[in-house]
Amino acid sequence: MIRKYGGYLGSLAAPVAGAASIDPTGSTALAATGLKTAGWFSALFGRAETLDALKARIVAELHALQKQRPKLRFTVIIDDTDRLDVAEAVEVLRLARKAADFPLVSYVVCFDGRILSKQVETALSISNGREYLERIFQDVVHIPPQEPFALRRYLKRLLRNSFQTEMNAQDNEAQYRLEVVFDRWGGALLNTPRDVVRLHQAVQLAWPEVPKGSDFCDFVWLQLVKLKWPDFYAWVQNYVQNVGSYRDRGRPGDAESATAGKGLLTLLERFGWHERLFLSGLDEILPGLKQLRYSREGADFDVFKFEQGELEYFERGRRLGSPSHWRGYFAFALPTYAVKDSELFELRAACKSNPDAAASLIRSMLARPHERPGHFLGVLLDRLMDEPVGYDKEESAGLFYAFTETMDDVERTTGFNDTEGRNAIWETSRFLLRKNSPSNLIQVLKDGASLSWLSFIMRDQGFALGKPEGHRSNPENAWVTENDFQEAIAVTIGRFEHIGMKEIFELPAPLNPLFCWAQLGDQADVKARFLEATKTHAEFLKAVGTFKGWANSSNTGVHHPIHAQYIAYFADPDDVYARLNRLAFNGKPKHREVAKALLAEWVPLKPET
């Protein structure tokens, strides 16, 4: 009979978590039954036996039970009443009133009085919902909210039980950030034990799916703002997505920095952090915010103001603010433009133990599809450059060898960058060699496949040593000694002489070997070889075309001038110009158009003063 009555009521009720799960003191352990839905009411009142008759029978049975077990009591806890829909909440109240006088049974109904009163007023169209509640409940106990420090301790205890390794951060920086998350952000956003439980459950659910090596503290903070401050969560997602554009060789729009800064300060007004950003500790969680200032007289709203090495620091820690790792915190996967940390480690290991394998890895990165050819290799080298510790002797030598086997292919694949006026991957490679000087220079120069790139590196070291004569030295950029450089140049020029001038014209970026030969070798010999290699008109036009440079001006945009002063290293510029004119007006049609195009880019020698 009781089961029958309970069956009717069971359609209105569902088990809820025990009170202990939301008690930060851990002292409560009550069996609880919560009413979560108010469906099937029509079915209850449409039975052949009325609820009143059934209730009378239950009361009689309970009285009999009371005589047998005088100390027995049933406590029914109905939790979260105010979280139901308006109509359902009122039906629960009616149901509780119907069953409130069962013997041996006590009811504890948990609710927020302000919210439930409003629900009653709305559902019943009355003016005072509080009076209605007072007619139902004999006594209302107002429980004060949990102290913020108790909630923070409760959260720490839950996280330590579930994530012992992550919570036992050893270094001071990690401990400080944990304090920022718990004390400042947790203190501001965690209001109830339910908030703590929801946050803990969110971390439990998602943390195992986040890419390995991610920052636990950052993830807890992100889940906290996701649950408790959706507007700020949306701002964070947009901000780190823009941070990611820097690794994709882009940047936010011109107005984006100020717009994002203003939006941030507006949001932080909620806790009074907009005037003193340091109070929030936000600049410990996200990069580019340390210079954000605000005053009543004026404001500097700009964000994305990264300090030197700041992005690299976040990247090494695989932080939420890392341009290569941010997406893993939201979608559990790296950004599409990013390079995996494992690929970085694999290349370094191969440089040390198997340089040929390292060269193969570089080729595979070069071939990986992207709208900008060579993008992933460029990102990989940028990541190598960001490593704080230099390489040992074997690793540096292996990296140099891998470069010599692949860098001319890089130029062939990526081509000349008209936006930057340089090959960014080559630029990064020379900085990597300055940072990790190889010991196998002479050996690699003798038969390295990328002769054009090797010429580029030799010119870089020549300039660092003050070569050619008259050039100001930059010894801080030199990783080759004077004696080794002289030997290296002899080997390099020997290779130029062996393949000949015509073959050099066919190399990618031929200006590097041409000027390496002319500036660091016998210029008279170079001019003679140039003359020999340009006897036919086709050879001459091809040779002159290799001297196209790069320039970008406001009135003409990007163009490719041919400077007579550079031609002078290889031939008489007046003779070259005169020959171009003859071909432009009297040459064969196929030569005429080419000559005219070259003349259009010609920049004459500046007159001597």
Description:
Residues 49-204 form the KAP NTPase domain. This is KAP NTPase domain-containing protein. InterPro entries: KAP_P-loop. Residues 1-19 form the signal peptide. Keywords: Signal. By secondary structure, the chain is mainly α. The protein folds into four domains: 2-136, no CATH class; 148-331, no CATH class; 341-531, no CATH class; 534-609. 58% of the residues lie in helices and 5% in strands. It contains 30 helices and ten strands. It has a two-stranded antiparallel ribbon with strand order 1-2. A two-stranded parallel ribbon has the order 3-4. β5 (293-294) and β6 form a beta hairpin. α16 (341-353) crosses α19 (393-414) and α17 packs parallel to α19. The longest helix is centred in the middle third of the chain and has 22 residues, at 393-414. It is elongated and about 120 Å long.
Q: How many structural domains can be distinguished in the coordinates?
A: 4
Q: Could you describe the largest sheet, including whether it forms a barrel?
A: 2 strands, antiparallel
Q: Determine the structural class based on helices, strands and strand pairing.
A: mainly alpha
Q: What is the percentage of strand-forming residues?
A: under 5%
User: How many helical elements?
Assistant: 30
Mean pLDDT, to the nearest integer, reads: 85
Spatial order of strands in the largest sheet: 1-2
Low-confidence stretches: 8-46, 294-298
Rounded Rg? 38 Å
How widely separated are the two ends? 116 Å
Number of strand elements:
10
What's the helical proportion of residues? 55-70%
